[in-house]
From TrEMBL, chains A, B:
Signal sequence bounds: none
One GO cellular component, as annotated: cytoplasm
Family: Belongs to the THEM4/THEM5 thioesterase family.
Protein name: Acyl-coenzyme A thioesterase THEM4
Enzyme Commission number(s) of this protein: 3.1.2.2
Major location category of this protein: membrane
Entries under InterPro entries matching the protein: HotDog_dom_sf (IPR029069), THEM4/THEM5_acyl-CoA_thioest (IPR052365), Thioestr_dom (IPR006683)
Domain named Thioesterase: residues: 120-189
Subcellular location field: Cell projection, Ruffle membrane; Cytoplasm; Membrane
Length: 210, 210
């Protein structure tokens, strides 16, 4: 298990690339596993081979997911982030960009792995993407913080398998509180989910960063 | 991509068991991939083998994740659900139980795969677990529905790698609107995240179920 005090491995681009490739392959395997219709014997045979590969990866085990060396901001460098992390197979990953005026934005597509209601994105997955985007927008105002409140309004179902857009922006800062809002929209541009959030900068963030 | 109109494969226990075993192996592989410190050559070699296994699973591909034949309610049977689904490698999975008085409850542990702030659960992941638990609590009042609003209050960080408890209960029903609330608590019993939600039963749910 990771710890706040755990020293993180910092990976340069050359070190990160093969691990990102590995994560991409596990991501594709995950989708194949959710949709496969192979018989019981083949499922068991593949499962056994996966177990052997897992042991090979465990031969050298880190205490916590590594960070990436980037010239960007703190959230970008979290390679294992479950929304944006290129090293995490459960992340779509959502590749969040920041514009000059502090708007956080990404286009992304969610596979059947993220299904909630039949043919639609799980409401919790939309919450997860928005929490991450709003958190990154909050971080544009300074050091960022941890989610204190998150409010979501689901206006219509969010479809799977088509290009979606997430956008977020910080609206104001009051001491250690940072407010942000954002949306997910479908390919027709219509908003499917709206979010507002308040983030609080922990005292130790301020100590570390200054 | 799945479609609302896609005929779902319904898996009995014998058919589901090997696929659940496969998903469990992919889940372990995912955690190993996030934490591995193997070198570039070994990471690439394992990645190639994973790609070959993915092709084997794709040899027979379903249009959408299958459902499970159970004697329970509708959410239980969604084998591919990203929170509770035993067939989905990205699901922890959280094994939600329902008590006689309609309280939905589970104990679960989240690995480093779900890390947000260093050593803590990603705020969006807590939202995802709560959306699922509150949705299942709402379903106990009748046919359930889709999330319309979800409000989360993060009271303290939620730790990784230790037993957590999620609890949810429907509070009232007004026409097609169902209100529910719930919490996640740490091993010391202290609440880390609180949630309230409103679910709306779509008209076609009522038509289908009656």
């Amino acid at each position: 298990m990771s710890g706040a005090m755990t020293e993180r491995h910092m990976l340069g681009e050359d070190e990160a690339a093969p691990l990102a490739g590995l994560a991409a392959r596990v991501r594709a395997l995950t989708e194949a596993a959710v949709l496969t219709g192979v018989g019981a014997d083949e499922a068991r045979a593949v499962a056994d081979e996966i177990a052997a590969l897992t042991e090979r990866l465990r031969a050298v085990r880190r205490d916590a997911p590594p960070f990436l060396v980037t010239d960007g901001h703190r959230m970008d460098r979290q390679g294992g982030n479950p929304v944006t992390g290129v090293l995490n197979p459960i992340a779509p990953p959502v590749d969040l960009d920041v514009t000059a005026d502090g708007i956080v934005r990404a286009e992304f597509t969610l596979s059947d792995v993220y299904e909630g209601p039949p043919s639609y994105v799980h409401g919790g997955m939309s919450a997860m993407v928005l929490d991450q985007a709003l958190g990154m927008a909050a971080a544009q105002t300074g050091v960022g913080g941890m989610t204190a409140t998150l409010e979501l309004r689901y206006r219509r179902p969010t479809p799977l398998g088509v290009p979606l857009t997430v956008e977020a922006k910080a609206s104001r800062v009051e001491g250690r509180k940072i407010y942000a809002s954002g949306t997910i929209a479908g390919p027709d541009g219509r908003v499917t989910v709206e979010a507002t959030a308040m983030f609080v900068t922990p005292q130790h963030f301020l100590v570390h960063e200054r």
